[in-house]
Amino acid sequence: MADPMRIRASMTGDKVEVKVLMAHEMETGLRKDASGNAIPAHFIRNVTVTHGGKTVLSAQWGTSVSRNPFLHFRFNGGKPGEKVRITWLDNKGEKRTDEAIIVVPQT
Amino acid sequence: MRIDRVLAGVLAAMLPCFAQAQQDTQKEIERYRQLLQDGNPAELYEARGEELWKTPRGPKNTSLERCDLGLGPGVVKGAYVRLPRYFADTERVQDAESRLVTCMVALQGFTLEEAKRNPFSGTGVPMITTDPFSGVGQRSVMTDLVAWIASQSRGMTIAPSVSHPKERLAYQAGEKLFYYRAGPYDFGCVTCHGEEGKRIRLQNLPKMTNAKDAQRAFGTWPGYRVSEGELRSMQWRMWECFRQMRFPELEFASDASIALITYLAKKAEGGTFDAPAIKR
Prior knowledge:
The structure holds 2 protein chains of 2 kinds. Chain A is mainly β. Chain A has a single domain, classed as Immunoglobulin-like. Chain A is built from no helices and 7 strands. Chain B folds into 2 domains: about 40 residues; about 240 residues, Cytochrome c-like domain (Cytochrome Bc1 Complex, Chain D, domain 2, Orthogonal Bundle). Chain B is built from 11 helices and 7 strands. A 3-stranded mixed β-sheet of chain B has the order 6-5-7.
């Protein structure tokens, strides 16, 4: 079971700013271990972000994304108290979904 | 989002000013660190560490919640900045990591060997596959715990205790080790960290006898190493420096490692602790 994502979603003006940190190895399949055997590829393939049942971000990723990826984006139409739902799916079929509530940033 | 791309951007931005002073390069590196700070993966380690602290483990199936890090059993807030210190129960000066070993043995019933196994998290970076503790993709309980414990001292003042005779002894031993030159390169900590303006490639090296440098260096370990994709602890920092100096391997949680950390902590006294940080 993969570790939970760290999600921060907050209002910036009329947009929702989302910052996500995902715990993932993101192995390219090109590296070798100490005994010279190739380390099998293991990376996030799809990322989907939904808000109120509507997809606000959909991404296809590959091996060029770093380990423990950080994703930062903004979208329209969100309000404080509503939920943002993020799902990633990797090449081994593993999956993780986490949610965060949109907050008003404290100043 | 992609770290390489961010770095490429920073490097590209740096190109026109290569002719200018080293200071500009340093500023750009600072900017790079700030760009990354927002999404520091150390957070993931901290979260795992907190979970591990509270999870019953080992033959005794106990959590570490009664572990005494110096401020009383179970007190984590502010403990890291007061370490290393003398502990009466072990009659030793201990840093965060060696103290965790003690707790894992005393509370959870692990053997000393089990508690010390795999202290540094795994990585596939070829440079450190000689590290006997790591394996590819292998997580380290110790690293996760230390990340969380350190994070509970963020923003506090570094205030190690150097009043007990054994603490003073550790400090003196650490000072001796710092200035000790040996090995095939006739190297010592002081070779790189005893003068101002030294660097490895573009990385400025802190002069550890200078309070400001020491505070900044000590206050940013543990740190997430972007180039290795791993969180690295203070014990690892010592271990790695020993390897780079071609010294014999520095044993994890050994008295020598603690002495060095005691010396550095004292040099950094009064600084603000800002770790787990992010590093290139």
